[in-house]
Structure formats: C-alpha cells, structure tokens
Design goal:
By secondary structure, the protein is α/β, with parallel strands linked by helices. Helix content is 52%, strand content 19%. The chain is built from 6 helices and 5 strands. The chain has helices at 2-12, 23-35, 46-55, 72-83, 98-106, 118-131, and strands at residues 15-19, 39-43, 60-64, 88-93, 110-113. The chain has a 5-stranded parallel β-sheet, with helices on both faces. Strand 1, helix 2 and strand 2 (39-43) form a beta-alpha-beta unit. Helix 3 packs parallel to helix 4.
Length: 132
C-alpha cells in the first residue's frame, strides 16, 4: 500500500508557481496543491511572480487572468514560457471573453474557471504534464 502512495505522489509532484492577487484564492489553491504532492510557490503580484521566475524554473505556472489589468496573466505566462519553454501554463479566471479564450488556445495555455473543483484542477494539471 505504501509503495502505491509514494508512486502516486511522485507522479503528481512538480514545482508550481501560483499567481493570484486574491489572498483567499492563493491560500486555498496552495494548500490543495501541496496536499496532493506539489511544491507550490505563491505570488500575490506580478512583481513577486517575476522575482520567483528569475530565481528558478517551474514545471507549471498558474496565473490569474486579470492580475494587474486585462493582459496581466497573459504577459506573465509569456515571460514564463520565454524563460522556460517546457513550462505548462494555465490561466485561472472567473470569466474569459471569446477573444481571451481564443488567444489562450492559440498559445497553448489552458483556461481554468473559478471556482474549479479539486479533481478537475488535478486532472487538468496531470493532462498537461503528460503532454509536456
């Protein structure tokens, strides 16, 4: 039994940079992801996120779409992928316009809609890790 639990955690583990300017959202998703074996670095602003991206690489970057304005999330994810092209990128949002949805799809960014069920979040992350 312990072997399967360890194997599951190894499959699910990875370094995540989570960016959201809403403290409850940031805390909730950080705790959920940590409980499922991910190493999570939380950033509450674009400045914090840029600092973390400069300090090291991440397997996954999840960013609020509307952080610091309309294009904030897209801009941060562009920076993350320029530094680390193999990083899986996600936008977290309550709403995305058709244009934003199209832009995300064209750029290989997965949209996650708030509130997202824990299992849906974990499945989305695992799907992207398998295709990376």
């Amino acid at each position: 039994m312990w072997k399967s639990a360890v194997l599951f955690c190894q499959l699910m583990s990875g370094r995540i940079l989570l960016i959201d300017d809403e403290p409850p959202v940031l805390l909730t998703y950080t705790l959920i992801l940590q409980q499922h074996g991910y190493e999570v670095t939380a950033a509450a602003s674009t400045a914090e996120a840029r600092s973390e991206l400069s300090a090291g690489s991440f397997d996954i970057v999840i960013c609020d779409l509307s952080i610091d304005g309309e294009r904030g999330g897209f801009s941060l994810l562009d920076e993350a992928r320029q530094r680390y092209p193999r990083t899986a990128t996600f936008l977290l949002t309550g709403y995305a316009s058709p244009e934003q949805s199209r832009e995300a799809e064209e750029n290989g960014i997965t949209l996650l809609f708030k509130p997202i069920a824990v299992q849906d979040l974990l499945h989305a992350l695992e799907r992207r890790r398998k295709t990376a």
